Amino acid sequence: MNLLKGFAAAIIASAALYAQSVSVDDVYVREVPPNMPNSAAFMSLMNGSDQAVDLVGATSDAAQTVELHEHANVNGMMQMRQIPKIAIPAHGSALLKPGGLHVMLIGLTRKLKEGENVTLTLNFSNGESVTLEAPVKKVMAGMMMKQQSAAPEGKCGSMKCGTGKCGK
Ligand SMILES: [Cu+2]
Q1: Residue 160 lies in a domain
Q2: Is 92 inside a domain boundary?
Q3: How many domains does the chain fold into?
Q4: CATH code of the domain in which 71 resides
């Protein structure tokens, strides 16, 4: 009984000790066909601290290069481009989603099938980093169904974003 209590206390203490300014929710990596060299990771980032924090970089076991990307309207075409950081306001959040901000996985080192996990390490401007397991999910089918029913304005279609073909 005492042992159990001590164990629980230890867990709570270590959780507090390793508390991060930024917490990560709903993280996933898009499943891509085997011939696609690139994919993307999406997530929501919540900053629980009083200081603004930037996501400044990331690494992964599944890609040679990991970049931070955004989608922007360039001469009427939605294109994605690399950005140096993704800002997370104090007590605010940043949403990385298809067709918007994303963590680009370039030069996949293995096939990404639904049900697998990708290890992602996120590096923040305050020196903290978070390593997490992101599940691979099929995004395309769901996106297409949503587009047909609800979102006629999707130009880049979001469906190809993150695969390196956006805007082409
Ligand atoms: Cu991208």
Answers
A1: no
A2: yes
A3: 1
A4: 2.60.40.1890
| Maximum C-alpha span of the chain | 67
CA of 106 relative to ligand 1 center, distance in Å: 8
Distance 46 CA to ligand 1 centre (A): 21
Q: Which pTM value belongs to this model?
A: 0.73
Question: pLDDT tens, 92-126?
Answer: 999 999 999 999 999 999 999 999 999 999 999 99
Give the integer Cα–Cα distance in Å for 151 and 56: 31
CA 81 / ligand 1 centre spacing (Å): 6
Residue 157 alpha carbon to ligand 1 centre in Å: 14
Distance in Å, CA 5 to ligand 1 centroid:
47
